[in-house]
Amino acid sequence: MKQKSTATNPSFMAKNKDLLVVGGVIVVLVGAATAYYFMTKKKEKKEAELASASSSGITTVPSSSSSYQTPPFIPSSSTSSSSSTKPNITKTGYPIKYGSRHPDVKILQRYLKIYKEDLGKTGPKRDGVDGQFGPKTSRAAQKRLKKTVFTQADIAGMRKALSSLGK
């Protein structure tokens, strides 16, 4: 009698080992990229909050689990003890600094664009020129102009430079 030789079929894992390894590597890389993206967004948000807190007079005490914010001490006066109104803080005039919203901030931002600074993707042309003195404008101004508070004379000089360049 003749015996049949039985050849066992290779398993799914053995057939597709390379495909499974490549797929696993892709899943790990996508997971790492997603985690990196969300961590950088969280870091930028935290930096923006810290910058706005420091400009508004709120003291931040860092801790290991969360940040605790202490409001500035405002003594209560005897005349306004019954009414609780917020202090009127305007960020529209001079000097122009972090947190300002002013048409002349656009002059500053256009001036910084001469240096090819990254001001984000806001504004009508999506080039970062939006009239809001935010963290990216502050960082670029500190890097290129070595200061973050600008007077009317500073803006006038920038306006003159921009007009001489035809921008």
From TrEMBL:
<feature type="transmembrane region" description="Helical">
    <location>
        <begin position="20"/>
        <end position="39"/>
    </location>
</feature>
<feature type="region of interest" description="Disordered">
    <location>
        <begin position="120"/>
        <end position="145"/>
    </location>
</feature>
<feature type="compositionally biased region" description="Low complexity">
    <location>
        <begin position="51"/>
        <end position="85"/>
    </location>
</feature>
<protein>
    <recommendedName>
        <fullName>Peptidoglycan binding domain-containing protein</fullName>
    </recommendedName>
</protein>
<keyword id="KW-1133">Transmembrane helix</keyword>
<dbReference type="InterPro" id="IPR036365">
    <property type="entry name" value="PGBD-like_sf"/>
</dbReference>
<keyword id="KW-0472">Membrane</keyword>
<feature type="compositionally biased region" description="Basic and acidic residues">
    <location>
        <begin position="120"/>
        <end position="129"/>
    </location>
</feature>
<dbReference type="InterPro" id="IPR036366">
    <property type="entry name" value="PGBDSf"/>
</dbReference>
<keyword id="KW-0812">Transmembrane</keyword>
<feature type="region of interest" description="Disordered">
    <location>
        <begin position="51"/>
        <end position="100"/>
    </location>
</feature>
